[in-house]
Amino acid sequence: MPTIVSIQVGRPATYVYERPTDGKAQAWRTAFFKEPVSGSVALADSGVAGDEQADHENHGGIDKAVLAYSADHYAYWRPLLHLPDMPYGGFGENLTIVGLDETTVCIGDRWQAGEVAFEVSQPRQPCWKMGRRWQIVDLPKQVIQNGKSGWYLRVLNSGQLASGIAIDLVSRPRPAWTIARASHLLYHEPDNVAGLQELADIPELSRAWREELLDRIARQQTF
User: Fold this and answer.
1) CA-CA distance, 63 to 58, in Å (whole number)?
2) DSSP SS3 for 2
3) Domain limits at 55?
């Protein structure tokens, strides 16, 4: 059964980055660095207690309250990136989950994990901060290519959550739309207007993704 194996939170902090182009130090601020939570933690529609965002324009909010990532991917990434000690939370996720990945999670899935009810809202779109966190510039590109992105969750019912709690699938209204399929459509099928429209019409999809899909459709229709 899918199980939460680790929970992480982070607060914005300033770090120094050495630019590979010229070696100059550059300060940057992020909450990407996540630390594990011991014991139980409260979740609400705003996310995990103690977790914050440095960039409120692109992160956080009800549709992206919690970032989940497959624990099963770490066995792939650690040797590939030469990071044998990469901890859970290394991809900025709040929940590290064993037994689920982008091919087995669908948009609109509803889960129950202890007291907390979740709904899957969208795939995660990797940003440059992921690469800077590990000083691997093309890491976001690698994630886009292999689809090991993670996904976002809404919190439908608040409560306490702890590592070791199993996840029950309550309902799956959109079985055709896995996270993997949605991500592949966005990044690799820019001309598939019918697919873009079908995904945009899913009511459980996050508003940000819907707006981006509709914008792409509009651009296609201008040609």
Assistant:
1) 11
2) coil
3) 3-173
Q: Within 10 A of 121 (CB to CB), how many other CB atoms are there?
A: 24
Does residue 214 lie within any of the structural domains? no
Compute the distance between CA of residue 153 and CA of residue 122 in angstroms, rounded to an integer.
Answer: 8
Query: How many folded domains does the chain comprise?
Result: 1
From first to last of its 223 residues, what are the pLDDT tens digits of the chain?
A: 999 999 999 999 999 887 777 778 888 899 999 999 999 999 999 999 999 887 766 667 999 999 999 999 999 999 999 999 999 999 999 999 999 999 999 999 999 999 999 999 999 999 999 999 999 999 999 999 999 999 999 999 999 999 999 999 999 999 999 999 999 999 999 899 999 999 999 999 999 999 999 999 998 877 5
Is the separation of the CB atoms in 143 and 63 below 8 Å? no
Residue 183 lies in a domain: no
What is the strand order of the sheet 41-44 is part of? 47-48, 41-44, 159-161
Task: Give the CATH number for residue 166.
Answer: 2.40.33.20
Cα separation values, 36 from 71, 78, 103, 139, 164, Å = 14, 18, 26, 23, 13
